[in-house]
Amino acid sequence: MLLDLPPEVCGHVAVAIRHYRSTARRDGRAVPAALTDLEGLLSERAMTRPEPTELGQLESIAESEAMSPLLLTAKQAARRLLCSERTLQRRVAAGHLSPVRNGRIVRFRVTDIDAAINETPRSS
Questions:
Q1: Structural domain span for residue 14
Q2: pTM for the whole thing?
Q3: Residue 119 pLDDT more than 90?
């Protein structure tokens, strides 16, 4: 039952037992061998890792909207628009894009950049 606890809890209990054993020895008290064995089992349990995530799960996590940023730097926005940062500045000056400002920090909404991509005429 004790080993059914999460690894983090087992680690904390193992540390507490280690501290108790150290204090008991320093005070001249006997420490049962079973306590040492229990500490070892708990330490081993604490070192276990969860099963690794399959590559397919990682790809779906990376592609989820929860992982994508809502705001982009000028460099990221320009890269997404396939233009230079100077061209991005020109589009802002022309009123085609509106940056989000927080003091001196300038960011661009992903939705605005995507809308600008969809509005840009394609050359043949």
A1: 2-46
A2: 0.45
A3: no
